[in-house]
Design brief:
It is built from one helix and eight strands. With about 140 residues, the protein is an all-beta fold. Strands 1, 2, 3, 4, 5, 6, 7 and 8 form an eight-stranded antiparallel beta sheet that branches. A hairpin with a 6-residue loop joins strand 5 and strand 6. The radius of gyration is 14 Å and the shape is globular.
Length: about 140
């Protein structure tokens, strides 16, 4: 079965922070708007994260992410769970500090909620900048 984008208008997205609390300019919605001009920009601090609550159960197979070079994460921890359960670790990803789109194969996991924790930021202040975040797989 071909992979399809799993993030949709009904996916509830939460982020750890937004730079200067300016959601209009740097908010989470910009990770999914397919624009190369907009991005989610976290505020400073360690361990920034994005949580996605899908409207129905999904099987995740790939993660696509585009950082701004200099504001990326050297280690991403993926956690997921079914509705009503606690998050459990799925895997670690090791992105490069580049502006290029990076694609990661993920151990196929059935879940309703996905959390991506950005650890070990390349920015001295711990900020993360994401231009594009895609989660691919299949809806169940």
């Amino acid at each position: 079965m071909p992979l399809e984008p799993l993030v949709c208008a009904d996916t509830v997205t939460r982020v750890s922070s937004v730079l200067n609390r300016d959601a209009k300019q740097f908010g989470k919605k910009h990770m999914f708007d397919a624009s190369e001009e907009t991005c989610w920009n976290s505020d400073q601090g360690t361990c920034q994260w994005v949580t996605l609550d899908f409207p129905r159960t999904v099987k995740v197979s790939e993660l696509h992410i585009q950082f701004q070079g200099g504001f990326s994460s050297r280690l991403c921890t993926l956690e997921g769970c079914r509705a009503g359960e606690e998050l459990v670790k799925i895997s670690h990803l090791y992105p490069e500090d580049t502006h290029a789109m990076q694609i990661f194969q993920v151990e196929e996991t059935v879940l309703d909620k996905l959390r991506i924790t950005f650890e070990n930021s390349t920015d001295f202040f711990g900020r993360i900048v994401v231009y594009h975040l895609g989660v691919l797989g299949e809806r169940l």
